[in-house]
Design a protein that fits this description.
By secondary structure, the chain is mostly helical. The chain contains 7 helices and no strands. The longest helix has 15 residues. This is Phage terminase small subunit.
Length: about 160
């Protein structure tokens, strides 16, 4: 299973870092980074993740690749294939995060991160806004209960008779 630290290690390794530097970047101890980097570089999950990111065949070593002319058992035949372009201009950051979250080709951890980043903008926390906002809201509620009566309307009759 590919954890967050392993994913960070793989991405750092793919960006050109050494195994030791990639292990430190991923959050492993500097004392054990050299041995941990060597160990992680041989991890089948990390190797499969790096192959998938590079677009090479054999994304998972434990999954059987379908033969030519056969259909993958995991993909139903009536589900259309969705392709996303790499360069897609977005005017709104939330639209970009939604597209990353809904992209089935993306890594599940990346999709989760996009959903977490989008969450506070769609569902704010209850009571979020500070003391002044809460005081003003309470004052409006209290004012509606105990408001003063409206002054009587004065009607002037200017007819001279």
């Amino acid at each position: 299973m590919l954890t967050g630290q392993k994913r960070k290690f793989a991405l750092a390794l793919m960006s050109g870092s050494t195994q030791t530097a990639a292990a430190i970047t991923a959050g492993y101890s500097e004392k054990s980074a050299r041995s941990k980097g060597s160990q992680l570089a041989k991890d089948p999950d990390i190797i499969a993740f790096m192959k998938k990111k590079r677009g090479e065949p054999g994304g998972r070593p434990d999954e059987e690749q379908p033969k030519k002319g056969t259909q993958n058992v995991n993909t139903p035949p009536d589900v259309p294939s969705v392709t996303y372009s790499v360069i897609n201009p977005y005017d709104d950051p939330l639209e970009f995060l939604k597209s990353v979250m809904n992209n089935l080709d993306e890594d599940i951890d990346t999709r989760k991160d996009a959903a977490k980043a989008m969450l506070p903008y769609i569902h704010p926390k209850k009571g979020e806004g500070g003391k002044k906002v809460a005081q003003n809201a309470a004052a409006k509620v209290a004012a509606s209960k105990f408001s003063a009566m409206a002054a009587p309307k004065l009607v002037v009759n200017n007819e001279k008779g």
